[in-house]
Amino acid sequence: MSASVERQHEPMARHTSWRVGGPADRYFEPASREALADFVRGLPAHEPILWIGLGSNLLVRDGGVRGTVIGLHGALDALSAEDASVTAEAGVHCARLAKFATGRRLAGAGFFGGIPGTVGGALAMNAGAHGGETWNVVDAVEVMRRDGSTAWLPKSAFRYGYRHVEVPADVVGFIAARFTFAVDEDGTAEADMKAWLARRKATQPVGRPTAGSTFRNPPGDHAARLIEACGLKGHRIGGAEVSTLHANFIVTDETARAADVEQLIAHIRATVRTHTGIELEPEVRVVGDAS
User: Fold this and answer.
1) Fewer CB near the last or first residue (10 Å), C or N of the chain?
2) Residue 50 and residue 67: Cα distance in Å, rounded?
3) Where is the active site (predicted)?
């Protein structure tokens, strides 16, 4: 990126993988770390800030987002490696991280290939795929504070669990992370990753507007199995539909509004609760005003 981008009333449908969402009061894409630090430092003390990558785990309501949205995908995108350690900035696509690490004969990074987002987003929600989770391979993370300063913090400074991370109160966003992987002694890591990606392509609506898995898997079960068992595959509300390929994915068409997606999420939860007694918890983050 040659220059920072700052726009008022930016439609968030341009920046979310569901391709829905109202305008952000202010939208900013930094040209560099320095530009990002200067921008954050200059914001009003109580300005709400929403950091996004690919917008792939995010539902922005039709009324839009008050405050500032900072988009990092394509901005902070450096990758480097030293021995079994890989450092990735927050805007790096997870699939790129997986390919980078396995190409250097490191094992344990392949699951990132199944995460449809950026490193920053994966850190924020402890994203996972194929049995792997982001924070299980984190060594340390670089964060930004409200005054624009940055610092590297050890993994022990954070509390995390299944699709959940608690950050220190003074942290406003992730800048980078250092991951530690195992050495791929038997040379199977790359083949395993390719097999996972082939399976994902065959079983998930890859290439369609979706936010990845809509719900967390409940203990001992799978959200997709429960949704399918309730006969909800293909169920539509407006321009949003439960995928006929994978029931834990909601896909949208060009007529969709964020309200369609949110209503479909509520309908799925209510139906599964009625038929099974299980309360599905959304994995996607819902932000903004309804109208």
Assistant:
1) C
2) 8
3) 163, 213, 283
